[in-house]
Amino acid sequence: MVVQMIPMLCIYPLLKRTTRWPQIWLGFTINIGYVWSWLSIGDLSLFSFPLYTNLYMMGALWCWTMVYDTIYGCQDEEDDMTIGVRSTPMSIGSVIPASIFFAVVMVGLVFAAGVTSFHRETYFVFCIGGSSVFFIWKFATLDLNSEHSCWSFFIHNAFYLGFIVYVGLLVDYIRIIVGWY
């Protein structure tokens, strides 16, 4: 699967020279592993709940990439303009409202995935509550004029938000294995 991602990853830098929306491609490229994993083990029937669940999760992952990579791009905005590289932050102007929109959609899609896959309270507390608190904290403390703040937002998405969602899935899985209903 990783080998198949290489051409997709090679296209991304070229898109930064030809379009103002390279993050759209990056969202698909970075998260394609999720799709391949699902296709290798999942139920592919059109109207099954796993299909909808996985479409919701893929949409959530794409929105998440749009959030963190758009903020990440803000730290390079001046340099990008100087050398002619295009990016989403330069295209949308007001980055915060657009990023908040994608964050809200991401949380909503993770919620929808939880509902369609019959997760219980533990999933929603960690994944939805934790993600919401995380985004409120990060957007409240974000300074787009500070490279450090943009970098912190990016890194915390990887290490904190990813971990929060992972813990929510893990705790809910353990709940099922142990038989806590």
**Termini, distance in Å?**
36 Å
- The topology string of helices and strands comes to HHHHHHHH
Q: How would you sum up the major sheet? A: none
Low-confidence stretches: none
SS-based class: mainly alpha
| Global geometry | globular
Q: In percent, how much strand structure appears in the residues?
A: under 5%
pLDDT averaged residue by residue: 85
Total discrete domains = 1
Give the count of helical stretches.
Answer: 8
Please give the number of β-strands. Answer: 0
As a whole number of angstroms, the C-alpha radius of gyration is 17 Å
Subcellular location: Membrane
Protein name: UbiA prenyltransferase
Cofactor: Mg(2+)
InterPro entries: Prenyltransferase, UbiA_prenyltransferase, UbiA_sf
Question: Care to give the gist of this entry?
Answer:
By secondary structure, the protein is mainly α. It has 8 helices and no strands.
Write the layout of secondary structure elements.
Elements lengths: L1 H17 L3 H20 L7 H26 L2 H7 L4 H5 L2 H22 L4 H21 L5 H32 L3
Helix pairs in contact: 1-2, 2-3, 3-6, 3-8, 6-7, 7-8
Fold and architecture overview:
With 181 residues, the protein is an all-alpha fold. The chain has one domain (2-178). Helices cover 83% and strands 0% of the residues. The longest helix has 32 residues, at 147-178. The protein is globular. The model has no long low-confidence stretch (mean pLDDT 85). This is UbiA prenyltransferase. It is a multi-pass membrane protein. One of its GO terms (molecular function) is transferase activity, transferring alkyl or aryl (other than methyl) groups. InterPro entries: Prenyltransferase, UbiA_prenyltransferase, UbiA_sf.
